[in-house]
Amino acid sequence: MILTEAPVVTAALEAAVRAPSPHNSQPWLFELGPDTIDLVLDENRVLAVCDPDGREARLSCGAALLNLELAIAVAGRCCDVEFLPRKDRPELLARVTIGSRHRAAAAVQRLAASIRARYSNRRPFASTPVPAGFRHAVRQAARDEGAKLILLDEVGLLEAVAGLIRRADHVQMLDERFQAELRAWTKENGSRDGVPAYAGGPRPSGGLLPVRHYGNGDQTREFERDPVVAVLTTPTDGPLTQLRAGRAMQRALLTATSLGLSASFYSQPMEIPSARAVLRSLLGEHDHPQAVFRLGYGFPGSTTPRRPLGAVIRIMPGEDRR
User: Fold this and answer.
1) Which residues form the signal peptide (predicted)?
2) In terms of domains, do 88 and 226 share one?
3) Which residues make Cβ contacts (< 8 Å) with residue 297, sequence separation at least 6?
4) Residue whose C-alpha is closest to residue 18's, from 90, 71, 97
5) Are residues 50 and 137 in the same domain?
6) Pair (111, 171) in one structural domain
């Protein structure tokens, strides 16, 4: 029996594709061999305007990789992960080899159980404060993957970064190429990728920060004026670091979900190089910002659809995979 035909692999792939991605672009492919799953960056789905170097796409693939590993673990198997296994093929981001039977720890089971429950909640959050213990847990989740999570209100930088996000949002609103790309990924109900209008949330009519809006709806709502905003940073940058940062981002998001919190992204300053440089300067020049998102108690929202597994899987029998 070919291992990658086993139910554990189907479950792992179904979990992997639940990872977040910019505009729900889902920039991943999975190549299946007799005992391995290769994670490949789908360069055809890298966003040309807001992510021309593929940094956000690699973060998304890192998040998918963590989901994959968690699902394999709760299915009762261990796995070995090799990052960037072939220098001659940079789009091959990771190789996962499924191993022997293994019993997942309770913490792993809790994270895996949050994969399907996690989604980007683009609606206003309640004013209920996020407890100190929950803040610590989310920070520790990022630290476990070698990253740092900075909660801006705790370091006195919320107002400064909020101003940067608003300026970056304004720049993107005036950028015709960006707006065209955003419209292209704002999909009708029934599409299996992009962000459908029902999941895009209302237009903000007030609040400290602009939330990216998808669709042409006229509904407006006031967003929170005191959001909990987190910045994920890494000590270095580059393809491998970005892949690992995606794992850290996803571990933090799944931890937040397991605690009953919601999250959504402020991607604007991450998609404009000059704004990302300013953000790094505000944070002290030492680390590289990789993702910005808000945390809080969200009202029920809607998940975004995913492509069927058949669209993201390649079976490559007989290929030399060493």
Assistant:
1) none
2) no
3) 125, 126, 128, 130, 260, 261, 262
4) 71
5) no
6) no
The CATH number of the domain holding residue 55 is 3.40.109.10
Q: Indicate whether 192 and 83 sit together in one domain.
A: no
DSSP string, 171-197: HHHH-HHHHHHHHHTEE-TT-SSSEEG
Q: Are residue 169 and residue 62 in the same domain, yes or no?
A: no
Same domain flag for 262 and 153: yes
SS3 83: strand
pLDDT at 181 over 90: yes
Classify each residue of 9-21 as buried b or exposed e, where b means 16 or more C-beta atoms within 10 Å of its C-beta: bebbbbbbbbbbb
pTM comes to 0.94
Share of the chain above pLDDT 70, in %: 93
One domain, residues 195 and 243: yes
Q: Across residues 214-223, what is the average pLDDT?
A: 69
Domain carrying residue 180: 132-296
DSSP secondary-structure letter at 25? -
Alpha carbon distances (Å) from 230 to 32, 133, 149, 264, 289: 36, 15, 6, 10, 10
* 205 close to 221: Cβ distance less than 8 angstroms: yes
Q: Is 52 exposed, middle or buried (0-12, 13-18, 19+ CB in 10 A)?
A: exposed
* Residue carrying structure tokens 């407006």: 220
What is the C-alpha to C-alpha distance for residues 51 and 246, in angstroms, rounded to an integer? Answer: 15
Q: What are phi and psi of 83, to 5 degrees?
A: -85, 140
Q: Is residue 126 in some structural domain?
A: no
CA trace torsion 219, 222, 227, 232 (10° rounding): 20
